[in-house]
Design brief:
Number of strands: 0
Order of helices and strands: HHHHHHHHHHHHHH
CATH superfamily: Farnesyl Diphosphate Synthase
CATH class: Mainly Alpha
Radius of gyration: 20 Å
Helix content: over 70%
Distance between the termini: 20 Å
Shape: globular
Structural class: mainly alpha
């Protein structure tokens, strides 16, 4: 497989001094991007454009994830906070614009349509999710399912470029790796009071906590020590580690169904890379077939 250099290609669009100085950007969707690149390189018809497609998907995902970080709190903000918010809006728009430009320059009009449709579907899912959040009509498992679907949707539209066993296994690979990413992200959020609001741990504790605990959470009481106490009391990290284990197991099963030994090795390396982010909760996946 050609050297993976998507991070290098996208850095020229992302690493602007003003953005780096005044606001924060989300991390890239590295596991999903590596998965997509490896799979596209396996197909003769898509190999020529594998780097372009993975680069533009990285930019589209970065744009959407950046917009998700925009603070919608209507309370008065400092000049620094306002500048950070404005730059997130502009940066997200800029990343999306570059996606159109790169594909148009390459004459890939059909891919522009495909990814635009995917973005519309992602936005529809987000509207449904946010509506249920506002109405407090969301369980922890529902939230987890939405989160996995939101991470998978953009990448799922590449199924039409795949053939044979890859086409059949692609949804399982994507679902497995997305479940792992969500579980890892939610493990991190469960330890950070600043990111705790509307996390999986938040929705789970609203379900299992006592009346006083539920009221404090609903009122936005997220002191670090208090959150840590609840997370420990209700085994939140253990439950999320189990979800991570389930995702890794599903990914392992899907990889084992592939026909190419070369691709199996590449995807095994990606899966093993995920285990480095588990904080010791899960063993490495040494045998994937």
């Amino acid at each position: 497989m050609a050297k993976y250099r998507i991070s290098e290609l996208t850095s020229s669009y992302i690493n602007y001094d003003m953005i780096q100085t005044h606001t924060d950007l989300p991390p890239p969707a590295e596991p999903r991007l590596r998965l997509l690149y490896a799979v596209l390189n396996e197909e003769n018809d898509s190999r020529e454009h594998s780097e372009l497609y993975t680069t533009v998907v990285s930019l589209v995902q970065m744009g959407m994830d950046t917009h998700d970080l925009i603070d919608t709190d209507t309370r008065r903000k400092t000049e620094k906070e306002m500048r950070s918010r404005q730059l997130k809006v502009l940066a997200g728009d800029y990343f999306s614009a570059r996606f159109y430009q790169l594909l148009a320059k390459a004459g890939q009009i059909g891919m522009i349509t495909k990814l635009s449709d995917a973005v519309c579907e992602v936005n529809r899912l987000k509207v449904n999710l946010y509506s249920r959040m506002r109405g407090m009509r969301l369980g922890a498992d529902d939230y987890f399912g939405y989160a996995v679907q939101l991470k998978s949707e953009l990448f799922g539209h590449f199924a039409s470029l795949l053939e044979g066993s890859l086409s059949r296994v692609w949804p399982e690979l994507l679902s497995g790796i997305s479940r792992c990413e969500v579980a890892i992200e939610e493990l991190e959020r469960s330890e950070d009071a600043n990111r705790f609001d509307r996390s999986w741990a938040y929705w789970h504790l609203l379900q299992v906590g006592n009346e006083e605990e539920r009221h404090r959470l609903a009122d936005g009481v997220y002191e670090q020590d208090y959150i840590a106490t609840l997370v420990h009391k209700y085994d939140v990290r253990k439950l999320l580690a189990a979800k991570l284990g389930s995702g890794l197991s599903a990914l392992k099963t899907a990889i084992g169904r592939l026909e190419s030994d070369k691709l199996i090795r590449e995807l095994t390396a990606i899966a093993n890379g995920l285990t480095n982010n588990t904080g010791g909760h899960m063993p490495a996946l040494n045998e994937m077939r």
